[in-house]
């Protein structure tokens, strides 16, 4: 028996463990510049880039996206201060679905394997707060709340712009898809911290998974670790950290809307022995209860047979017991 490096609950099945010796760079993963959307020609060009990225990669990065650097820098630094607190402090605001409270999350399980990460979950709550779930904020750092809410509201607005561009990329008006979304709803944001890991060859900060929603928008610090499974050859590709850029990815809902034209792609988070990593993720999902099915206009086009049955996430937050981590 070798030395026990991490609790066995964190150890991935052999076939899911990362090959640390192999890091393939993402030279072709699209980085899309949103600075010029003034005229129709620029809009069409950016929309085409987004369409290509969603079809080929299911992932892209955006730069010059309009969210102020200060917002990104502050949420990362406030999140960093929070995760550095002793565990007992963080547990004071532990997430507890039985009490309908969000907050600090212990390492969760995906398919039975614990993720080498801690989290902090909160909702973007606007005018329609209905007390089904409550945010909890720590006393320290005192500015976490301010920057977290600012980050989410700015990221939502960016999500709305990107969803409009996705709609244009499908040859539809921007409002076709953006009409399914609303700002200031009970939308989830997660802050994630993967501590340095003594066994990065055995554990992962996030097991390989696809996202269920429409789009996820995330920022990551300079440490890196996010990888996506390239469709072309199944190789794991590094998503290079670009300062203040957002990583955007297609989830199952978008895949269903486009009848599989835009793809939701596997991704995971690799760990480092000497460095912790931070990321902040907003799940940009439509209004609760929206029925998701291939868009009529898509079915009129080249792929007339629906590959996805209509479904709805329903009122996701109405049954918190169903969300309790296993
Ligand atoms: O932390 C990250 O960079 C990715 C996390 C993720 O993929 C998720 O929460 O769905
Ligand atoms: Fe994900």
TrEMBL record:
<keyword id="KW-0479">Metal-binding</keyword>
<dbReference type="InterPro" id="IPR005123">
    <property type="entry name" value="Oxoglu/Fe-dep_dioxygenase_dom"/>
</dbReference>
<feature type="domain" description="Fe2OG dioxygenase">
    <location>
        <begin position="182"/>
        <end position="286"/>
    </location>
</feature>
<dbReference type="InterPro" id="IPR044861">
    <property type="entry name" value="IPNS-like_FE2OG_OXY"/>
</dbReference>
<keyword id="KW-0408">Iron</keyword>
<dbReference type="Pfam" id="PF03171">
    <property type="entry name" value="2OG-FeII_Oxy"/>
</dbReference>
<dbReference type="InterPro" id="IPR027443">
    <property type="entry name" value="IPNS-like_sf"/>
</dbReference>
<comment type="similarity">
    <text>Belongs to the iron/ascorbate-dependent oxidoreductase family.</text>
</comment>
<protein>
    <recommendedName>
        <fullName>Fe2OG dioxygenase domain-containing protein</fullName>
    </recommendedName>
</protein>
<dbReference type="Pfam" id="PF14226">
    <property type="entry name" value="DIOX_N"/>
</dbReference>
<dbReference type="GO" id="GO:0051213">
    <property type="term" value="F:dioxygenase activity"/>
</dbReference>
<dbReference type="GO" id="GO:0046872">
    <property type="term" value="F:metal ion binding"/>
</dbReference>
<dbReference type="InterPro" id="IPR026992">
    <property type="entry name" value="DIOX_N"/>
</dbReference>
<keyword id="KW-0560">Oxidoreductase</keyword>
């Amino acid at each position: 028996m070798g030395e026990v490096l991490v609790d066995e609950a964190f150890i991935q099945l052999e076939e899911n463990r990362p090959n640390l010796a192999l890091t393939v760079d993402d030279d072709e993963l699209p980085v899309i510049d949103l600075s010029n959307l003034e005229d129709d020609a620029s809009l069409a060009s950016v929309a085409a880039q987004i369409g290509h990225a969603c079809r080929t990669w299911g992932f892209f990065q955006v730069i010059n996206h309009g969210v102020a650097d200060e917002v990104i820098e502050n949420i990362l630094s406030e999140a960093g201060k929070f995760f550095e607190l002793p565990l007992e402090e963080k547990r004071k605001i532990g997430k507890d679905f039985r009490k309908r409270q969000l907050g600090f999350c212990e390492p969760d399980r995906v398919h039975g394997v614990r993720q080498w990460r801690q989290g902090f979950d909160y909702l973007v709550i606007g005018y329609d707060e209905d007390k089904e779930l409550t945010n909890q904020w720590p006393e320290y750092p005192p500015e976490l709340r301010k920057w977290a809410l600012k980050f989410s509201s700015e990221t939502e607005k960016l999500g709305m712009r990107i969803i409009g561009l996705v709609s244009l990329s499908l040859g539809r008006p921007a409002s076709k898809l953006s009409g399914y979304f609303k700002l200031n709803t009970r939308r989830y944001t997660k802050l994630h911290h993967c501590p340095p890991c003594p066994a990065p060859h055995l554990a992962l900060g996030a097991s390989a998974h696809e996202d269920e929603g429409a789009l996820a928008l995330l920022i990551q610090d300079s440490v890196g670790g996010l990888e996506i499974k390239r469709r072309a050859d199944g190789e794991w590709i590094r998503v290079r950290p670009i300062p203040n850029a957002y990583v955007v990815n297609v989830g199952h809902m978008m895949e269903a809307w486009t009848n599989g034209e835009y793809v939701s792609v596997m991704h995971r988070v690799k760990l480092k022995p000497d460095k912790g990593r931070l990321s902040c993720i907003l799940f940009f999902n439509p209004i609760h209860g929206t029925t998701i099915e291939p868009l009529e206009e898509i079915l009129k086009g080249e792929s007339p047979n629906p590959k996805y049955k209509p479904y709805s996430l329903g009122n996701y937050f109405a049954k918190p017991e169903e969300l309790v981590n296993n």
